[in-house]
Amino acid sequence: MTRIVNWFRKAVDSIAVTMLAAMFTVFCAQIFFRYVLNHPLGWTEEVNLMLWLWLIFWAGAFCLKDRDHIRFDMIYLHAPKKVQKVFFLIASLAVLVGFAASFLPTWDYITFYKIKKSAILKIRLDYVFSIYGIFLGAIILRCGWAIYLAIRPQNEKQIENQQVK
Fold this sequence. Notes:
Elements: H1 2-36, H2 42-63, H3 74-78, H4 81-112, H5 125-151, H6 156-162
């Protein structure tokens, strides 16, 4: 199982790196065409915006560890371990329920965008915004897994490794 998880992490990190490299390449092309050839390219801005959107949600869903996400933990860090576990369960459950409740309406809205296309490249906007649906699904699964691990007493060590140190 560890081998599969490591392979998955490397794969999703590689995809994120590829998107970042593509953004840099397109950005450099835009600078060259605009300032050297005096012929700006409109499609480069559109591609960079799409890549940025995909990179943010891709990394948030797959590349960042739970402890890398922003947390408001001043009270949490000063609470006893049992209270921290309760805080962790409440927060994870709140995120899971909130994201799960918004999943179907959000997916419905994303699929509605199949009727619209981007201005220059004419890419369907449901493809562009589908990354948010993927992000929602991944966060729901991650929160569900975190809750599952938290309620199993034999996994106390694993929970401590996921939480902020």
